[in-house]
Specification:
Number of strands: 12
Structural class: alpha+beta
Radius of gyration: 20 Å
Shape: globular
């Protein structure tokens, strides 16, 4: 079977809610990253076989196949198709998996995989809220309700359950959140190669400058400031300060086969060594990265010690901390350049945002393998292992 290679990986800098990217239509923001990939690689746009695009809230400006709309907003010709993926927070990581599977099967040679989320323009949970307001009901049917009687599925409740199950205190979560900001602030000097400069634009229009730095990173964050933020629920340990930030952003990678490498005349950044996805308990919901990682390592014949860097999405601080504890992982290798607590979590874009950060970090540090995993609503997790080329 043919291999799948990453030849380019790019992202926008994250924009805060109502911030410097809030004036961008999500299809147009997606097109900025797609066009930048074409420019970075010098690829003939007509060589692209497909665009596979992750997005969670596929309603309003993100409805009607955001992938195809991104294609039609970009330099790609009309002949390039597009399809949208919703695996919740892992949507663009799954898009990358689908792209890799396509080129490894030999059915395609050049695929762009990525994602977008404008949480300013299409707020989280919009599909659910709008449907309920219109009298169209919710996503839990009779059979699912019977299987999980009395359960209210909630990522917030799940994150609290993980903290309790793994004995994590508010102080530990807050310390981890501070570390995320500190690491991100230190790493920013290395990020120019991965960030696509776009015009800063809020709801009032152009701001007359480029957006090149993640708005959420707080270099001056303090433990006292983080600890002062109100808890999300009485008696809990989670707060807005030790959870991921609402964020606008887009990201993408170009995935190619060996034939694609030859056609483009490019050297790869990394090879997809392993990819898998796993379902788990939908009530605790966000713990799936632990068994998914264990199974992935067993499948690909690696030990965690063989992995130079780990990216575990910081949806809530309890998620990577529980993962670290359960797998006895080296904390220095875990989210070494900060994560979603500092950079933000633009849902559908986060999968390839993590992949972009990881692939570039492997190149810079010389580490051979990098592992990425993400918790996903519904109790799922994708795992990808990259090998530096």
């Amino acid at each position: 079977m043919s291999a799948a290679y990453i030849v380019a990986a790019l992202r926008t800098a994250g924009g805060k809610r109502a911030g410097r990217l809030s004036g961008w239509h999500p299809a147009d923001l997606s097109a900025q990253v797609i066009d930048a990939l074409l420019e970075r690689t010098g690829a003939d746009p007509a060589l692209v076989d497909d665009v596979i695009w992750g997005c969670v809230s596929q309603v309003g400006q993100q409805a009607s196949n955001i992938a195809r709309n991104a294609v039609l907003s970009s330099r790609l010709p009309e002949s390039v198709p597009g399809t949208s993926v919703d695996r919740q927070c892992g949507s663009s990581q799954q898009a990358l998996h689908f792209a890799a599977q396509a080129v490894m099967s030999g059915s395609m040679d050049v695929v762009i995989a990525g994602g977008v989320e404008s949480m300013s323009r299409v707020p989280m949970f919009s599909p659910n809220a709008l449907a309920e307001r219109a009298g169209l009901g919710g996503y839990v049917g009779e059979r699912m309700a019977a299987r999980y009687p009395g359960v209210v599925f909630s990522q917030f409740a799940g994150a609290e359950q993980i903290a309790r199950k793994h004995g994590l205190s508010r102080a530990q979560l807050d310390a981890y959140a501070l570390q995320s900001h500190q690491r991100a602030a230190q790493a920013r000097a290395h990020w120019a190669e991965q960030i696509v400069p776009v015009a800063a634009r809020n709801v009032d229009g152009e701001l007359g400058e480029l957006h090149t730095e993640d708005e959420g990173v707080r270099a001056n964050a303090t433990l006292e400031g983080i600890a002062s933020v109100k808890l999300l629920q009485e008696g809990g340990v989670l707060s807005a300060a030790n959870a991921s930030q609402i964020c606008d952003g887009a990201s993408a990678v170009m995935v190619v086969s060996e034939r694609g490498l030859q056609a483009l005349g490019l050297a790869p950044l990394a090879r997809v060594h392993h990819m898998s996805v796993m379902g788990h308990d939908p009530v605790i919901m966000l713990e799936a990265p632990i068994p998914a990682t264990q199974r992935a390592l067993a499948k690909c014949g690696l030990r965690l010690q063989d992995i130079g860097l780990y990216e575990v999405n910081e949806a809530f601080a309890s998620v990577p901390l529980a993962w670290q504890q359960a797998l006895d992982a080296d904390p220095a290798r875990l989210n070494a350049e900060g994560g979603a607590i500092a950079l933000g979590h633009p849902l559908g874009a986060s999968g390839t945002r993590l992949a972009t950060s990881l692939v570039h970090a492997l190149r810079r540090t010389g580490a051979r393998y990098g592992l990425q995993t993400m918790c996903e609503c519904g109790g799922m997790a994708n795992v990808t292992v990259f090998e530096r080329c």
